[in-house]
Design goal:
- The chain contains 6 helices and 12 strands.
- With 249 residues, the chain is an alpha+beta fold.
- It has 2 domains: 43 residues, no CATH class; 205 residues, no CATH class.
Amino acid sequence: MVDVELKVGEKTVTCSKEILAVATGSYKRIDVACREIPSDVAIRPLAVGDYYYSDGSICPRELAPLKEGCIGIVMKAGREETDTSAFPAIHGYVLGLYDANGSCPSPWSSSGIATGTQTVSTGFNGYGDTLSVKQHAAGNGLDLKAVFPAVYYATADYDKRYPAPASASGWFLPSAGQCRCWYANEAALLKSIRRVTGDKSYTWCDYYWSASETSNLPSLLVWLLSFDHRRMDFESKVCDNYIRPCLTF
């Protein structure tokens, strides 16, 4: 018999469980669900830094998060007015917990092709921009991984590693405007990432791709977030930079 006692606010939750013998060096996990919310627990709006999980649940940033199942951190609450994507009701935007492609840099594209993404550096259209690249590849018989590897690693490959819930948009490459939002909230995002992963020295890589081509040379240049120079910049599509997916929910 195993007896468990938990304190939730001022409420004590107890659980007794019969388990089989456990061998030395092994353990058995017991899930305890408290279905009653104590009356003194405050309910607050979604906030930057909250933890987002693969089942669509959210853990407030003030609480001790579970690492298991956490796939991202909320980087903006509510729908941004510049987001013109067709994705329905948006409650917030999530930055992936890890870099894509095993934290290895990758080109945005292997050739000079304009795909029709938004070209402004302030729009919140990463979902739509990523879809534009995927549709361009499919419509022209191009292999997404070979020709647009940044989008491939931000979407299909990342979802294999960290599946998003069906209720979310799915992973996409953030737009230039979403990269600006990430940069503006980097302190809160880093704090939550370090806390949930246990990596207290974690920091960003130098350069991250956005999904947004530039207005002057959309076939050759893409906006990127430079933590090295602390600003938005642009880069040739064939250069290697890091990839950090986002999703909306």
